[in-house]
Amino acid sequence: MDIRPLTETYAVSPQIQPEDIQAIADAGYAMVICNRPDGEIPPELAAETLRPLVEAAGMGFVVNPVVGGALTTENVEAQRAAMDGTERKVLAYCASGNRSSIVWALAMAGRLPTDALIEAGAAYGYQIGQFRDLIEGLAQKAE
């Protein structure tokens, strides 16, 4: 398991495994967001297979599949709602953590400076900078 904190309360990771779930809970995460569509993974890693394990470990679980190259406004709104739904730490996962970092940056537009959002992802090699104009546009709408 490779947890990559973007802030003190939000982290991303590549695909989680059933054996990772207790360690995620022990690390203080209260919410797990699945940003990976089930069509990309074997059935044993499907969201509804992992959900009962995550919930049994005392965490919330939100399914918000982000299709590569097809990120939607609904994805951004669902990510924001999931993050706002807990006062404790959130872990979002996808294949590499990239989509989870991008949807987070878009959901945080207007809440954190654009440069801070881009730099948080860049620390792990995520390419959020290509979304600068979109982040700034969303930030303006949020004002």
From TrEMBL:
**Gene3D superfamilies named among the record's database cross-references:** Protein tyrosine phosphatase superfamily
User: Where would I find the Beta-lactamase hydrolase-like protein phosphatase-like domain in this sequence?
Assistant: 2-110
Under the heading Pfam families, the entry gives:
BLH_phosphatase
Q: Listed GO molecular functions? A: hydrolase activity
NCBIfam families recorded for this chain? TIGR01244 family sulfur transferase
Tell me the protein's name.
TIGR01244 family phosphatase
Q: Which organism is it from?
A: Pararhodobacter oceanensis
